[in-house]
């Protein structure tokens, strides 16, 4: 079997990128983003990409890096509030944007990866989100048809992985990563800790290796958007 | 005196019940967590993938992998569980969350909610708000009664693009509390006034139809 382990993020993307492609990128805010693969995607020079990601990074980090270089043609997201360059490009008409409710976005990725072409949801009925979409009444309530999403490439970030591509996520850094891993025609995962096959507890694996084509170990900055703390009361 | 931000959060906390699973929005709703009555067990859900949200961390506990839906660093509790965004919204959309408390720009007399978009301004996105109001069993809005310009935010119909149609059960403003007949066509019912606020003042500042059910 072909080896899934690659030496670095750049090597892991080789041969997988092309202009106009659709990329899914895991993470919520800056939490659990594939930071090394985003940089490698930028450095690949690929252009005109559509990025499906809950958020759009911040200025100078995460997907903000790909906005700076104007490699992104369109974003599919639920919330993009943290990025000035994003706002500038969008208002200047340089960037397309499709808003999806967060749960609809998550389910569209899950459906795409699971071979479900479409599903009906109550979310967004009667709002701009449902305009032009088919609706159907079930048990007296109206639902709107949403479609599954598939990408040319998914880039995801996990905590631990093995040579087989099995992945374990950590805390709230899981977020969109598991569904996006299933919905890419190719999926590249970056992990903090890469172990030989057999070292992970099979009962604890969140994403089975079948979904992961390539895996790479990275080092991570893990930037924090809002560092909120409390004070210790004096003993 | 109209209710302060903290008094609004205290009033909203009265909607909590023992054993509830609750999702709190950003802003004043977040403050509700500070007013959970002692002895009451409430589990907070964070839609980025966590049940059992704890308080902010001490300085030496900050963990970049552990944030809430407002992207703030938080902590876990012994009962905490983590899950994917798909699982998170399955529990939201599937009606497993008891209560959602969130902010609003406008609410209509039949419970339509607008809280995500002002045409002509840069839109940040709806995040999880549309899913929450569509799926959670009971939706409570906490907001100022009027805009900065003094216009009523409790309207006959919303002017702004909607987050959901007939989704709001209860509105708590700085002037009082309104029950909403989201399934029928009855007027809102004013059930409570902030201390020192008169029914006349509320009537003068409310465009949507309501009847007084005080007492």
Structural commentary:
The complex is a heterodimer of chains A (235) and B (215). By secondary structure, chain A is an alpha/beta fold. Helices cover 20% and strands 28% of the residues of chain A. In chain A, the strands form two sheets. In chain A, strands 1, 2, 3, 4, 5, 9, 10, 11 and 12 form a nine-stranded mixed beta sheet that branches. In chain A, strands 6-8-7 form a three-stranded antiparallel beta sheet. In chain A, a hairpin with a 4-residue loop joins strand 9 and strand 10. In chain A, helix 5 packs across helix 6. Chain A is globular and about 50 Å long. The termini of chain A are far apart. Chain B has 215 residues and is an alpha/beta fold. Chain B contains five helices and 13 strands. In chain B, the strands form two sheets. A ten-stranded mixed beta sheet of chain B has the order 4-3-2-1-5-8-10-11-12-13, with helices on both faces. In chain B, helix 3 runs parallel beside helix 4. Classes of the chains: A alpha/beta (235), B alpha/beta (215). At the A-B interface, helix 4, helix 5 and helix 6 of A face helix 3 and helix 4 of B.
In short:
The complex is a heterodimer of chains A (235) and B (215). By secondary structure, chain A is of the alpha/beta class.
List the helices and strands and how they pair.
The complex is a heterodimer of chains A (235) and B (215).
Chain A lengths: L4 E2 L2 H5 L8 E4 L9 H10 L4 E4 L11 H5 L3 E6 L6 H8 L4 E4 L2 H12 L4 E4 L13 E4 L2 E7 L3 E12 L4 E2 L8 H7 E12 L18 E4 L18
Parallel strand pairs in A: 1-12, 2-3, 2-9, 3-4, 4-5, 9-11, 11-12
Antiparallel strand pairs in A: 6-8, 7-8, 9-10
Chain B lengths: L4 H9 L7 E4 L3 H4 L11 E4 L3 E4 L22 E7 L2 H9 L5 E4 L3 E3 L4 E2 L14 H7 L2 E6 L10 E2 L14 E4 L2 E4 L8 E6 L5 H6 L5 E3 L3
Parallel strand pairs in B: 1-2, 1-5, 5-8, 6-9, 8-10, 12-13
Antiparallel strand pairs in B: 2-3, 3-4, 6-7, 10-11, 11-12
């Amino acid at each position: 079997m072909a080896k899934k382990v690659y030496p670095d993020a750049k090597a892991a993307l080789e041969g997988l990128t092309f202009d106009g492609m659709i990329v899914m990128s895991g993470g919520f805010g800056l939490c659990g983003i594939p930071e090394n693969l985003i940089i490698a995607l930028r450095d690949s020079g690929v252009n005109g990409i559509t990025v499906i990601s809950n958020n759009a990074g911040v200025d100078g980090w995460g997907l903000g890096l790909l906005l700076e270089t104007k490699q992104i043609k369109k974003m599919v997201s639920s919330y993009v509030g943290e990025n000035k360059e994003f706002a500038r490009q969008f208002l200047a008409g340089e960037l397309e944007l499709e808003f999806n409710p967060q749960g609809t976005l998550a389910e569209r990725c899950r459906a795409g990866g699971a071979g479900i072409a479409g599903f009906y949801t109550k979310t967004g009925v009667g709002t701009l989100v449902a305009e032009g979409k088919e609706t159907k009444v079930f048990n007296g309530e109206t639902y709107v048809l949403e479609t599954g999403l598939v990408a040319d490439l998914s880039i995801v970030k996990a905590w631990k992985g093995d040579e087989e591509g099995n992945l374990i996520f950590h805390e709230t850094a899981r977020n969109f990563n598991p569904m996006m891993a299933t919905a890419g025609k190719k999926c590249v995962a970056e992990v903090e800790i890469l172990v030989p096959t057999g070292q992970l507890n099979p009962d604890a694996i969140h994403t089975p290796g079948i979904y992961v084509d390539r895996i790479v170990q990275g080092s991570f900055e893990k930037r924090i958007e809002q560092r909120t703390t409390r004070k210790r009361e004096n003993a | 005196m109209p209710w302060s931000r903290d008094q609004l959060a205290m009033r909203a906390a009265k909607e909590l019940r023992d054993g509830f699973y609750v999702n709190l929005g950003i802003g004043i709703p977040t403050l509700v967590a500070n007013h959970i009555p002692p002895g009451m067990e409430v589990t907070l859900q964070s839609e980025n993938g966590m049940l059992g949200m704890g308080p902010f961390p001490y300085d030496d506990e900050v963990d970049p992998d552990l944030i809430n839906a407002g992207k703030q660093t938080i902590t876990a509790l012994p009962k905490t569980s983590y899950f994917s965004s798909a699982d998170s919204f399955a529990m939201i959309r599937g009606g497993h969350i008891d209560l959602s408390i969130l902010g609003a720009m406008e609410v209509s007399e039949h419970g339509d909610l607008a809280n995500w978009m002002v045409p002509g301004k840069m839109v940040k996105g709806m995040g999880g708000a549309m899913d929450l109001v569509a799926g959670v069993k009971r939706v409570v809005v906490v907001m100022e009664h009027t805009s900065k310009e003094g216009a009523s935010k409790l309207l006959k119909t919303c002017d702004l693009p909607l987050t959901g149609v007939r989704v709001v059960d209860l509105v708590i403003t700085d002037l009082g509390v309104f029950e909403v007949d989201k399934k029928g066509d009855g007027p809102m019912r004013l059930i409570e006034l902030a201390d020192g606020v008169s029914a006349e003042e509320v009537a003068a500042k409310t465009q949507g139809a309501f009847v007084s059910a005080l007492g």
